[in-house]
Specification:
Blueprint (H helix, E strand, L loop, with lengths): L4 E6 L13 E6 L10 H4 L6 H6 L21 E5 L13 H16 L9 E5 L14 E5 L2 E4 L3 H9 L4 H4 L21 E6 L7 H13 L5 E6 L5 H10 L2 E4 L31 E4 L24
Parallel strand pairs: 1-2, 1-3, 3-4, 7-8, 7-10, 8-9
Antiparallel strand pairs: 4-6, 5-6
Helix pairs in contact: 3-4, 6-7
Amino acid sequence: MGRGMKIGMVNMEDEDVSEWRVHGQIITVHFQKVSELLEWDDLFPGQIDEDLEQKDDRQIGAEIPMPPFYSYSYTDIIVVKLPCKYPQEGWKRDVFRLQVHLVAANLAVKRKKGKNGKMKLIFLSKCMPMMEIFRCKELKKREGDWWYYEPNMAKLAQKASLPIGSFKLSLSLREIEMNKVFDISNSKSREAYATVLHSSAQYVCGAITLAQSLLRTGTSRDLVLLLDNTISKPKRDTLIKAGWKLRFIKRIRNTRAEKNMYNKYNYSKFRLWQLTDYDKVVFIDADIIVLRNIDILFQFPQLSATG
């Protein structure tokens, strides 16, 4: 591991860290522990009251305390003790566990390069670190409860830059922001909105309306529609005029669907993963009307969902 390094210690106050002193200077990262009264649903509620948002201009949603990162900007290794309440029910939704992950991620992203340009994170935990933040392929070695990661810093920086909680991720529908265009991507040519017509030509009108509503928001992304020959040529021509780029697919049958039900071919949505000429795709059902620009969704770093 080497010597003369600066080693950041996160949530390691109850551990014996003397053996780490052989490798360099120990830097204890101090931060205020999140309140025990704060629950997961406070950050990620099942439903957001838009009326409340419109009535009140203050920031809605709870905060997770973070350390002053500028005080810990020089580190070569970050050693982190992760809380693990497994096998308790809901152990993955431990807010303190989330806080420690976020502290570690932000320390790694905001640090200035030390002796070695590659960032190293070592976790002490019976539970695997959150895959949503530290990817499986970034795990280089594991010994017992010790997990050694070398994260992709560009991808980690994307994740660390995201706001915490559904309230901050939700897009405001206030009139003053309705027409704001989030045109901040450097790869618009490889990003697309997509929908699927897999069960009925009755959704053609909905798909036309969806395309027009997206274009009226000012988006410059491609509009891609997956369909098969059950949609007649006149209807396909109309869809093209509405703004869609058509991709023909072979429908995938849902073997559990009841006879003559609308979801008979809803597994056709898996064909979206075959749009490999795009880096990011935002799927929208064909019966949706988009009221404002939502291009900010393309900034989310990985598989995401919204409703």
